[in-house]
What we know:
By secondary structure, chain A is an all-beta fold. Helices cover about 0% and strands about 40% of the residues of chain A. Chain A has strands at about 1-10, 15-25, 60-65, 70, 75-80, 105, 110-130, 145, 155-160, 185-200, 210, 215-220. The interface of A and B includes residues 40, 102 and 207 of A.
Amino acid sequence: MKHTGIMVAAVVAAGLVVSAEAQEKVQLKIELPKPQFTGTPKDIRSPNLEPARGGKPRPAIDVPAGADKVLSKDCKVTSSDPEPIIGELAFITDGDKEHDAATYVELGPGTQWVQVDLGAEKEVYAACVWHYHGEARVYRDVVCQISNDPDFIDGVVTVFNNDHDNSSKLGEGKEKEYIETNEGRPFAVNGVKGRYVRFSSKGNTSNEMNHYTEVEVYGKP
Amino acid sequence: MNTTTFNRRDFIKAAGATAAFLPTFSVLSQEYKAETIGPAQDQVNVGVIGYGAEGQILVDAAIKIPGVRIKAVCDIWPYHRQKARGLGRLGHDVTSKTVYEDYREMLAKEDKNIDAVIIATPDWMHAEHTNYCLKAGKHVYCEKEMSNSLEKAASMVKAQRETGKILQIGHQRRSNPRYMHAINRVIRESNMLGRVTHAYGQWNRSVAPFIKDHPRLDIPIETLQKYGYENMEQFRNWRWFAKYGGGPMVDLGSHQIDLFFWVWDCVPISVTAIGGNDYYNRQMNDNVMAMYEFKTKEGKINRAYYQVLTTSSRGGFYEQFMGEDGSLTIAEIAARGNTVQREVRAGGPEESQWVEFAKQGLVVQPKKAVSREVTSNVAVDARVTAAADGWPLPVDLLKPAHMPHLENFFDAVRTNNPKLLNCPADLAYESAVAVLAANTSVAERKTIYFKPEEFHV
């Protein structure tokens, strides 16, 4: 689907108007892994959980034409956990999103982050994160930030945040928590510029650990 | 054994001396009791055999229980041993030096450090692992099904009797407060449903491919074969191979068919099942439909139907118990079943008897259904809004599903009192007989008739 001649006023979280011009838009197409829920289902309760979607896919994300490219493939990944429990950080951008013991990284308890180095400043229009999607579970305090500072001290823009009680101290988020599935959690970013993209989480409803199968960052190469 | 264990043993001695005087608690009082037996810091040191998906679920729940400390983990897969080391990050004593490939080595080296063992290995190894641990003086929580062989399951019952140790089998619904309330109080004590003549259970799942082998994580073939597995595909998909498991009928049916025994407090006289490996090219049946006849202690015949499908998730998973006065629909996830449905004939004028049940806390009185007269939506007919007629159960479970059953196990361990167990081995053996017989009935295409003595070891 294409949208032409649409006036877009994209406003980033920092309050800067990026553009207000006629742009051709395209629907972001995300390649999804197979659904892989196994084991005993669980009763998941969360005060900030999004309503059930009844099996419906998430709404499509429209991005400017040419801004639908995967920027993160095979990019270098660093982490707050110097010694992941299992897996390797390279799994996170290797393009393998399938759920399997061999495809995800497990980081320790508490708030942990993984950081993708896009290699240079890029204009980011969307991102998607897959944690562990082998069972229905909710990851706590899912936050995505973009910056040109590898230490995330200066010029940090938060583009997704469902930490409703600010327990990870990255700011109070307005997004809803969600049940992890093979769809991951895609979200629009609106052209934020930066070289580094950082994803945080703080355990999940099954255990205290943090897991990342894949992240993808989309934008203009 | 660390210093806290000395205190625990002192406590157990004292508690054991008084155990004989404990009254027979009702199921709900056991929930209360879980918080009152001994000091919360009373530590039980635990080893784990089998740290796959189910083992991790059990450990995740167990470590939420005060006083449970994981000391060592055994798994033949290096990947799982690596994963187990994460428990050290949570304050448990699992390090590179306390993860083992061979359970015998773990028991030998950790003998003084372990009081109890959680076993979550493939079914065919349950008996070997359980019996070894019991004879080594350890208490055991073993996942269901007891075994894919009745002879092996019987050996577990015998080993428990010989050793006198605690052995809990992982039919976790037996300790779920929602199920305990529904079956013990609503059905059995209060007789809200009248005579429950029929039961139904199902667990339907979508099509799922085999878990694929990944070279990155392969176990060396010589190691696999040392432990009896032909190859990595069979190891990772063991539930579908007759040598290792009983297929979906046993994996899933064992939980739900066990409830028929609980509700009726008797054993079946026959099972007639059909099914087969009709969709996948696998060893075990991918669909089974089994009908059981139970003969109650009063001589009445009740019938139950069970279905497991692996090619459609239609209807999901739940259990129903149908009585002359009402029916209970329940599922391990409350959103899929948590209500009692009243038969129109039951409850007297203005359903007064059921209102009284609600006042007693057995169910929650539903709000009146919207009547046809007060709605502009002519499609709504109060007479057929079944959900509005449901009387929800008032009990909730806010913990992980396996946690109450583990709490029950650790309560029994702390007091050294097997009588506290909600699912001891001899009880679990009864349902194992019935569940394994369904596969036999499918294979032999005939009704299997049981003798009462077959359910006892």
